[in-house]
Amino acid sequence: MFPTLKTGAVMQYPAKRTLQFNTDTIRFLDGTEQRFRDNTSVLHQWTIQLDLLDESELAALDRFFVSSQGRFGSFSFTDPWDGTVYPNCSLAKDTFAFQLRGEMRGKTAVTVCENRT
Amino acid sequence: MIYFPQLSSGATGQFPIARQRAARTVVNQSVQGYQVKLADPAAAIVEWHLSFAELSDQELAALEALFQAVEGSLTPFTFLDPVDNLLAWSEQQNQAVWQADPLLTLTAGVADPMGGTAAYQASNPTAATLMLQQSIAAPASLDYCLSLYARSDQNARLWLVRGSATDAQPVGAQWTRLISAGQLQDAADSISFGIALDPGTTVEVFGIQAEAQTAASLYKQTAETGGVYPNARFRDDVLMITTAGPSRHSCELDIVNVEYL
């Protein structure tokens, strides 16, 4: 399960959410087009930017990255906008970086993406 | 043992500290968006970016001596992560890294001070002092801080074991963070951390943490690896030093730990 902050929140502002379709387009010589969907439904992605974290909050995210083995593992993620649970999500990148500028001044960013099921 | 030196403050790093973990996943994606993934755990990389300012001549000399001893990025050294708990399996004392004396009774799943159930109860039913400890491959001569939360229904005493040093600390009914810190005159290449219980004592313990510094930071749970990296290297073959005045040096370092090298 994706870790929450000490406040109980998953994300901080500014929070970004992406919806992605995948449409194939065939354009003919006369300029007309035929379009069809490659994916059966929309895929979601959340960019979680976190600031002013303490070391234990960073450690929890780091532990989650290690247990997920980067983008290999899958987990369920609850969309903080509407509470919808997406049962098959992964981290989008194989790297997890943070910067600690002082006590309780940790900063990191994580991207979670929904997998095609 | 070649190891990354501590500053005169006992710290390994200064703020800001940046750390990056990298995993390797092979992904085969179909046109429809379906993915087949393969993990490659052996290719994991951990990297630190350390910024040092206002270093004294002695502190800089220690860094330079290490850089010369390992010949830049050529050979490895032991690096103790300044932002992690050095002990592995900090909440699973049944793992092999923990050595418990045979008659020490450990019961997991006890309510902890963070609102979970990750504490454990340690009981010593014998007439001798019993220990639970974990040894790490790090120089015993550095500054270390051992910390843990403890409580007991008895008015008990708990010994904090930090290498050859043992500090007795009183334990009451409320969760209290106990700390044992200092430097040992010991040239060994390993050091043990743990607890020792007096005969007939029962204590609840949570959040055991060892750090290569003089004071305790917030507790960080660990799993199969702690913050000891025996295969760390300088990422670069160049060490650039800026001197602003007498005994006022600064430099930036990138350290990388790659298990497959």
Helix and strand topology:
The complex is a heterodimer of chains A (about 120) and B (about 260).
Chain A: E1 16-20, E2 23-27, E3 33-37, E4 43-53, H1 55-68, E5 75-78, E6 85-91, E7 95-100, E8 106-114
Antiparallel strand pairs in A: 1-4, 2-3, 4-8, 5-6, 6-8, 7-8
Chain B: E1 17-22, E2 25-29, E3 35-39, E4 45-55, H1 57-69, E5 77-80, E6 98-100, E7 105-110, E8 119-123, E9 130-136, E10 143-151, E11 156-162, E12 165-171, E13 176-183, E14 191-197, E15 202-211, E16 228-234, E17 241-245, E18 248-258
Antiparallel strand pairs in B: 1-4, 2-3, 4-18, 5-16, 6-9, 7-8, 8-15, 9-14, 10-13, 10-15, 11-12, 11-14, 16-18, 17-18
What does this structure look like?
The complex is a heterodimer of chains A (about 120) and B (about 260). Helix content of chain A is about 10%, strand content about 45%. With about 120 residues, chain A is mostly beta strands. In chain A, the strands form two sheets. In chain A, strands 1, 4, 5, 6, 7 and 8 form a six-stranded antiparallel beta sheet that branches. Chain A has a two-stranded antiparallel ribbon with strand order 2-3. The model of chain A has no long low-confidence stretch (mean pLDDT about 95). Chain B is mainly beta and about 260 residues long. Chain B is built from one helix and 18 strands. Chain B has one helix at about 55-70, and strands at about 15-20, 25-30, 35-40, 45-55, 75-80, 100, 105-110, 120-125, 130-135, 145-150, 155-160, 165-170, 175-185, 190-195, 200-210, 230-235, 240-245, 250-260. In chain B, β2 (about 25-30) and β3 (about 35-40) form a beta hairpin. Chain B is globular, with a radius of gyration of 21 Å. β7 of chain A pairs antiparallel with β1 of chain B, so a sheet runs across the interface.
